[in-house]
Amino acid sequence: MSGTVSPENGTAHPLDQAPGSPVHAVLALGANLGDAAATLSQAVQYFAAAPGITLTGTSPRAVTAAVGGPAGQPDYLNQVLTVTTALPARALLGACQAVELAHHRTREVRWGPRTLDVDVITYGELRSDDPQLTLPHPRAHERAFVLAPWSWLDPDAVLEGTSVAELAERAADADTVRREERP
Length: 183
Fold this sequence. Notes:
- By secondary structure, the protein is an alpha+beta fold.
- The chain has a single domain (19-179), classed as Alpha-Beta Plaits.
- 25% of the residues lie in helices and 25% in strands.
- Strands 1, 2, 3, 4, 5 and 10 form a 6-stranded antiparallel β-sheet that branches. A two-stranded antiparallel sheet has the order 6-7.
- Helix 3 (144-153) packs antiparallel against helix 4.
- The longest helix has 14 residues, at 36-49.
- The relative contact order is 0.21.
């Protein structure tokens, strides 16, 4: 993927710069339409096989009530993945959007029901206010449906200097998150 080059200084935008060494990133997956469990499993397989991405961890799944959006949505199934990647941040976002598209994701209603949602939560230490990819994710620190599975995967994880587990406990939706009971 070619990067966007700034006409002012001739350098690639930070989101388009390949890292000098693989970067640790956190991805959050969620689905509440169709066979959400199968969709999440297929998304995990996609990231495990994607060029330039190495899957390093998968959280237990969380069942959560929908946060925001239209009333009456089915519960979500959520999962957090950790990866290392040699891809630029925007290319990682492109990989996330490709797997969403493969699962027929549409963006008709903000925070509406969806077949698959994949968000880049963190990409190394990169900070970005770009409207296409804000890093770290601008609402991750307040969403237990992201924070709880992340803390189950990595109890020592920190987001913006605060324990992810502590953030999960303080999140407004903390009481709606429960671990998926697997057969």
